[in-house]
Specification:
By secondary structure, this protein is mainly α. The protein has two domains: 13-74; 80-174, Serine Threonine Protein Phosphatase 5, Tetratricopeptide repeat (Alpha Horseshoe), CATH 1.25.40. It is 63% helix and 2% strand. It contains seven helices and two strands, in the order E-E-H-H-H-H-H-H-H. It has helices at residues 23-26, 37-79, 90-99, 103-116, 121-133, 137-151, 155-167, and strands at residues 13-14, 20-21. It has a two-stranded antiparallel ribbon with strand order 1-2. Strand 1 and strand 2 (20-21) form a beta hairpin. The protein is elongated, with a radius of gyration of 33 Å.
């Protein structure tokens, strides 16, 4: 294999084995400079294989990670016990979840509580707050229509309207009445 021209000042760069290499070749550490052409070809094949190894390692790690999160999700569903069965107020537990930014958990607890007791007004108001924090416009508007007759005229209704105007400004339910 012919060597490329050396530096302008005739200083050569060695490859560590006493052979002369050009500056362009010395910047390519994956290429082995030798008289044996097959050895250089083997290095090129190994380089191509290393990309496949890295790709398969990435796919395997992604698969393991997806499996881990799927198992974690199903484990939570299997182990879930209602707050009432544990002697905990569901609205209080949802408030704690909301305080720590765990909106999904708060929504799950509140929906479960409303399945058992559909007339639980504090649970509905807290669920409205959870929907507001996760910007779920459709669910917020639907639940606000359900709660309107029970809380209209109370201070909490003004808060519901303010949040509703932020989420759905075009909805006439949240217009400010003077």
């Amino acid at each position: 294999m012919p060597l490329a021209p050396l530096h302008q000042n005739n200083e050569s760069t060695g490859d560590g084995e006493g052979r002369q290499v050009s500056p362009a070749q010395s910047l390519k550490p994956e290429r082995i400079i030798s008289g044996n052409r097959r050895r250089g070809q083997v290095v090129a094949k190994r380089k191509g294989r290393s990309h496949m190894v890295a790709l398969s390692a990435f796919a395997a790690s992604f698969g393991l990670m997806a499996g881990y999160y799927a198992l974690q999700f199903f484990w939570k569903k299997v182990r879930y016990t209602k707050p009432c069965q544990r002697g905990i107020d569901p609205v209080g537990e949802a408030e704690v979840f909301l305080a720590y930014g765990r909106t999904r958990d708060a929504v799950r607890v509140l929906k479960d509580s409303l399945r058992d007791n559909p007339d639980n007004l504090p649970a509905k108001v807290t669920l409205l707050r959870a929907y507001s924090s996760e910007c779920n416009r459709e669910a917020y508007c639907l639940l606000a229509r359900d709660v309107q007759s029970q809380v209209q005229g109370q201070p909490v209704w003004h808060t519901i309207q303010e949040n509703g105007r932020r989420l759905a400004p075009q909805d006439p339910l949240f217009e400010a009445k003077l």
